[in-house]
Amino acid sequence: MSPSKEESILRQLDGAIRQPRAGKLLTAPLLPIIIAVFTIALAVFQEPSDVPPWAFPGSPKDSAGVDSTRLHHIPNSEARFTLRQAIDRFAPPDWHPSGHPPMPDVVAHGRRADLFACAYSHLPNGTGRPENAALAGLPEGYIIAQLADFRSSARKNPLPGWIPGNSMHAVAMSATEADVASAARYFSRLRFTPQVRVIEAARIPRMREAAFVYARIPGAGTEPIGSRIVEGPPDFERHELRDDAMTYVAYVPPGSIKRGRSIATKGTNGLATACVTCHGKNLVGTGLIPPLAGRYPTYIVRQLIAFKTGARSTPASQPMQPVVARLTVADMIAVAAYAGSLAPAHHSR
Ligand code: HEC
Questions:
Q1: Cα 281 to middle of ligand 1, angstroms
Q2: How far does Cα 241 stand from its chain's mean position?
C-alpha cells in the first residue's frame, strides 16, 4: 500500500465522517461498515507479492526546470554541455573522461534506433542511477547472462510499461554478441564507488516523481516517509545533466538498516540461508553471484519484487526463490537499505 493510496483512503474516510448533510444520522451507523470494508481493502493491497508503485517512479514532467539551450557545468569538471546534449541517447555526456578507461563504441554511442549507448543510462563510470543499475564491478559473466535473460524475456520488467525497464529490453534485443561482450568487459573492470547515501528518517522532504526518481519540491515542507524508500538526487539538475559523480540520497524508514543487517546476516521468517551465505561477507558478491553492497536500494527492491512475482525467473535465479518467498515488502526495504548503506571496502574484484 503506497502512502498516497493510504492517504486517499483516509481522506475518503475523513470525508465520510465529515459529510455535512449525511451527518450524524447516516454516517455514524455506517462507520463500522466503512472501516471494515477499508480494512479488508488494506489487507488485499498489502499482499506482499504486489508491485509497490513507489519503487517505480514515473516521469511526468521530464527536464522541468532545466534550461535546454544554455551550456551547463557541474562541480569538478571542465566540460560544458547543453541539456540537449546531456540527453542525447547516442552521445551522452562524459563529464569526467579521465575517470575511466576509453569506452567501447557500444558504451559511448550505441547504435540507432534502439541500441541506446550504455553510458546514457549506466553512465561512463558505470555507477548507473537509481532507476537502472550500477554495473561497475559486476562479474563479466553475470552481465553477459543478464543480457541473454533480457533478450529471452526470462528477465522482464516487474511493472510492465515502466520505461527504464522497457528500454533495457529494447537494447538487449538490438545488441549483438560482440556488443554485449565488449560492454561486459568494460563495466566489469571498472572500480565501483557507491554513490548513494542511505538516510533513516520518519519525515522526509516532500518530493515529486521526476525523470524516474524523486526530486525535492522546494519550499514544500516535509511528509511522513511511511513504508517505502524514496530515492533521488540532492540536485535534480545534476541528475538531468547525467553527472556521474553525484551521490544520490535514499531515505528509508527509521530502524531499516539494523533490521536489514539482521536479515542479511541471520535470515528472517524461517529463512535458513542468510543473504551473506551466497552474496558474500558484507554482500560484496562471490563468483557469479552479484554484489549488493553500495548499490541503489530501490534497484535492489525492484529485483526482489521481480524474483517474487516471477518477472525475473531465470534458471540462474532459482536460488533466490526460497529467499523472496519469505520476504515481505517491509523486509525488502530493510535489507535493501542495509545493502545500500555498505561501502564495498573489501571488494577484491
Ligand atoms: C542460496 C543463495 C542465495 C541467497 C541465500 C540469496 N541470494 Fe540473492 N542471488 C542469488 C543468485 C544466484 C543471484 C543471481 C541470479 C541471476 O544470475 O540472475 C542473486 C541475485 C540477487 C539480486 C539481483 C542483483 C542484481 O544485480 O540484479 C538481488 C537484489 C539479491 N540477490 C538479493 C538478495 C537478498 C537481499 C538476499 C537475502 C535476503 C539474497 N539475495 C539471498 C543467490 C542467493
A1: 13
A2: 19
- Residue 57 CA to ligand 1 centre (angstroms): 23
pLDDT digits (tens, 9 = 90+) for 151-171: 999 999 999 999 999 999 999
Going along the chain from its start, the domains and CATH numbers come out as 3-45 (no CATH), 83-188 (1.10.760.10)
| C-alpha 124 to ligand 1 mean position (Å) | 26
Kindly report each contact of residues 99-105 with a partner whose C-beta sits within 8 Å and lies 24 or more positions away, as own/partner: 99/124, 99/125, 99/244, 99/245, 100/124, 100/125, 100/126, 100/190, 101/186, 101/189, 101/190, 103/186, 104/182, 104/183, 104/185, 104/186, 105/182
Ligand 1 environment, Cβ below 6 A:
133, 145, 263-264, 273, 275, 277-279, 289-290, 292, 300, 303-304, 314, 316-317, 319-320, 323, 335
Residue 296, H or E segment: none
Q: Look up the pTM and report it.
A: 0.86
pLDDT in tens, 293-302: 999 999 999 9
Tens digits of residue pLDDT in 1-59: 444 443 443 333 332 222 333 333 344 445 444 444 444 444 434 444 479 999 999 99
